[in-house]
Amino acid sequence: MRENDIDKILIDFKHAAIENWTAQKNCDSKKANKYADKLIKIKEKLKKIGKLIVLKELLVESSPIVRSWAATYLLAEDENLAIKALEKLIAERGEKSFAAEMVLNEWRNGKLNP
After folding, report:
1. What is the Cα–Cα distance from 65 to 90, expressed in whole angstroms?
2. Domain boundaries, the chain
3. 10-59 pLDDT, tens per residue?
4. CATH number of this structure's domain 3-108
5. Helix, strand or coil for residue 2?
6. pTM over cut 0.90
7. Contacts by 90-98 with C-beta closer than 8 Å and gap 24+?
């Protein structure tokens, strides 16, 4: 897979993460589910080609929504990096702090398989 293809996938991931969050805030479950499904498909595609680790590039994004999704999917790939990213989100006390805390709790309790 070419670098341009990976760049496009990461752009699509960022877009889907933000659209999912926007739909959730607007109580539009149909649209939120559509973008959640898109995020899952992107994750599965990256996993299939052995490139899931490229999501680490998104951990420096300004959007906490994008960082949260990327960190969640990276838990199984690079647990330490993902945990640090989620802990940072929690410490920021922003709009994704609670979600990041729940993801970490579920992961640590063995109830999450991203």
Report:
1. 12
2. 3-108
3. 999 999 999 999 999 999 999 999 999 999 999 999 999 999 999 999 99
4. 1.25.40.70
5. coil
6. yes
7. 92/64, 94/64, 95/21, 95/64, 95/65, 96/64, 96/65, 96/67, 96/68
